[in-house]
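If your schedule permits, I should be very grateful for your opinion on a structural question. The matter concerns a single protein, recorded as an amino acid sequence and a row of C-alpha cells. Could you please explain, in whatever detail you think fit, how the C-alpha cells follow from the sequence? I set the record out below, with my sincere thanks for your time.

——
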Amino acid sequence: MKKATLLALGVVTAVTVATSSPCNAAFVIGGENGWQLSTDGIVDVFSYYHSTTPLPNTPAGFTRAASLLDNASTSEHNQRFGIGVGLLPSVVAFNVKAPTTNGVDSTVRIGIYPSIQNQNDTRFNTGGNIDFREIFYTAKGAYGELLAGRALNLYQGKNILTDMTLLTSGVVGSRANTVNLGHIGYGYLYTGFGPQIRYTTPDMAGVKVALEVAEPYKITANTGKTNSPRVEAEVSYAGKIGATTTQAWLSGLYQTAPRATGNSNDESIGAAYGLGVGFSGLNLLGSGYVGRGLGMLSAQDGNVLPNSAADENGKTRLHWGYLLQATYKLSPSVMIGANYGQSRQEKNDTEGATFIAMKNQEAAVATITYNLNKFTQFVAEYIYSQNTWMDGAKQHSNAFALGTMFYW
C-alpha cells in the first residue's frame, strides 16, 4: 500500500515533491549518452450510487447560489448510479531524463489525465475526457530546483495531496463532471494546474522553501486587466522525530488586478497550512485555509462561478475551511480511514438581499482499502455531504462507492 500511495502522489504531482527523476517508473529505457525514457500511470475505475435531496425552494425575486451536489429538482430526491473515475482521473505519463551535466539533472514530464465516463447520461457524449495537465521541465542541482511549464500550483497543493480521498472517490458531484470531488469545496479548494515558473530550495534538514510566479486569473466577474502575476509560496517540512513521521506546511497566494469599473482593485489573498504525524500504522492529519477572494470550489473561481469569490457589489468575501483525518493500517495490505471537512464563506455587511449565497459545504468520508498486490488496489467508501445556504436552507447527499486502481 505504501508503494502504491507514493506512486499515485508522484504521478498526480511530481512537481510538488520537487523531484527531477521519474516517479517510481515501471519502465525505464536507456538511450545513447545517458538519456532515459520512462513511463508511469494509473487506471482508475469507480462505481457509485448516491441519493441527493431536492434543491431548496428559492423565494420569488431571489437567486440561489448553485449547489455542487447533483440535483436540479426542487421536488424529489435524485438517485443515480454511475461508473467513472474517482477524484483522480486515470493517468498516463512520460518522463525524459537528460544526462547529468555540470551537476545538474534535467527532466521533462508530460502527464495525460483521461476520464472514462460519458457525461449527462448520454451514450455518445464523451467530450472533455482527456486532460493534458502536466507538461514541464525541471533542472535540479546543488542550488535547488527550477521548474518551468504547466504543473500543479503551490497554494493548497499539499492540502489535496494529503487527503485520503485523492485515491478514492469522495463527494459525488454533478454528472457533467469528469471527476468526483474528493473534499474539493468540502475542506479545501482545488489549486489547479497552471503555467508557472518555480524555484525550490535544496532540502535543509527536512525544510524546503518554494516560490512560484504564475499566470494571473480574473478574480471576480468585474476584474479588468490581469496585468500583474499571481504569486504563490510554500514552506514545508518532512522528517522523523524518533519513530514518528512528521510533515507540516504553510503556503500562501497573492494577486491584485484593477476592476473593469471603478478605481479600486480586486484582490485575492490566502494562507493554507497543515500538520500530519504517523506512528505504528496510525496517521493523523489536520489542514486548513483562510483568505479573501478565493471562492468555494477552486481557488480564484469568482470569474467562472459568479458571486463565488465576491458578492453582488463586487466586494470579495472571507473564505475559510479545514479537514481532519485519521487512517490506520490493520495489516500491510488493509487500511481504514475517516475524515471530515468543510468550506465556508462569510456574508458581507453590504451584500444585496436578493442573492442567497452558499454558507457552508461539509462532508464526512469513511473508507477501507485493500491492496491485492503492489500494483492493484480495491476501495469501498461511504460519503455524506451537506450544503447550507445563507438563509438556512440545506441539501444533503448519501453516497456509496466501490472502486479499483491499477498502478505502474
User: Anything to note?
Assistant: Confidence is low (pLDDT under 50) at residues 1-23. The longest strand covers residues 36-52.
